[in-house]
């Protein structure tokens, strides 16, 4: 154990997860490590949920994380009824259900905002930070595990810190992190990253020793799921995306090795990155948030030289692969706090190409990434807004239909808007590509309907649009604009009977 916990004075802070969980009181704000779902604490939240269920205390906490976390945290605490307020992003089913029935107050935030909001005191005080680490150094510095998320800001601003030292993660992860914390305005300086490969900070997190109230041992792996195999629709979208990028190179608007790439989460995003492996692009770089299995494929195929992100979100197989070749991957992957991986300043400077997935898009190019039928929260905006607004080229992909064709992903008006037409430049479905750059709203509508809509909905959308043509700058019939959603909720399909 002294290999993982090198600061001798900390050895007497080792306690059971249940003892550490007893430090958590009703109404506290608990901020944890963890990002999509990598590097989150597991033992203490499980013990807390067990304690709440056993004691029936009705204890509730506000839970802040980096992004989504695993079942041991969001799932256990949601099922124990222990989450009062949750931010900034989640993907766990029980947590989502409780958000959607109004039991959990959810604050869906841009990921780059969270550390600042904590630092500035906008979210009140953080009582306890629970951080997963792979080790603690002789000086008492924390070596984080598979993600960085908001961990540095949480550690600095929390009143107390609990560290879960997870021996399951390889200790060779040490050295992969690059930890830089911006000062508060008016003293903030430019973030000195001019290339995705730049290292600008420390490989550890400093913490005042008297803040560390408990150290808990763990060996539970991150619960990252494997992706399903890539279907025909996703493959077609990936092909359309590659074709678009090739054309941009041909037109001289992108260099041959493109610009740093960001890719979102989910099965579609995974397929899109997978498509790059088979493309002829090489010497690529990644400046993104989530480093998924497909990034290992890109590194292995020699396509990617450097990948910067905030988490190492690898499936069990991907983690095995990573561990077997850790030295090579370590030289090509950098993990940063999410306020740096998602920093608008850095994204704009590097000229990142953002590629995110939409739930639905409207004919004028507004994008809904979060709320199904305008009212059911899916996951959250995550980093898609940080990247889209600041990208060199912002791209959204979506299959043209959902739920076996009963929903058109292109609708007259989005039922919730996360990314406005001002930020969205390219829409890609399996049908084709709509390039919205430099187009007026009417021209955008034509490009989207002609290129991206499924044949079952094309005439319906044309009819909707043609009725409004030339009426105003952006034309809608307010009685019809959301009628497609309403029809689906009433009849189970957006199609005309
Ligand atoms: O429903 O779960 O019941 O099957 O939405 O859709 O097709 O499985 O897509 O896994 O790629 O996720 C936008 C949610 C896509 C994700 C989203 C239904 C569909 C299915 C999921 P089921 P798929 P994916 C980086 C950037 C926001 C955050 C982000 C996401 C379910 O990419 O959360 O981009 N993005 N962050 O059937 C009704 C429609 C629908 C629909 C799909 N039009 N109407 N239901 N669905 N389209 C990462 C981070 O920031 C951390």
From TrEMBL:
Gene Ontology molecular function: acetate CoA-transferase activity; acetyl-CoA hydrolase activity
GO biological process annotation, one example: acetyl-CoA metabolic process
Domain called Acetyl-CoA hydrolase/transferase C-terminal: residue spans: 318-464
Signal peptide start and end residues: none
Domain of life from the UniProt record: Bacteria
Entry protein name: Acetyl-CoA hydrolase/transferase family protein
Pfam families: AcetylCoA_hyd_C, AcetylCoA_hydro
Positions annotated as active site in the UniProt record: 289 (5-glutamyl coenzyme a thioester intermediate)
Family (UniProt): Belongs to the acetyl-CoA hydrolase/transferase family.
Residues binding CoA: 264-268, 359, 379, 383, 403
Statement: the UniProt record of this protein carries the keyword Hydrolase: yes
Lineage, opening ranks: Bacteria, Bacillati, Bacillota, Clostridia, Peptostreptococcales
Residue span(s) of domain Acetyl-CoA hydrolase/transferase N-terminal: 7-216
Annotated keywords: Hydrolase, Transferase
Keyword Hydrolase: yes
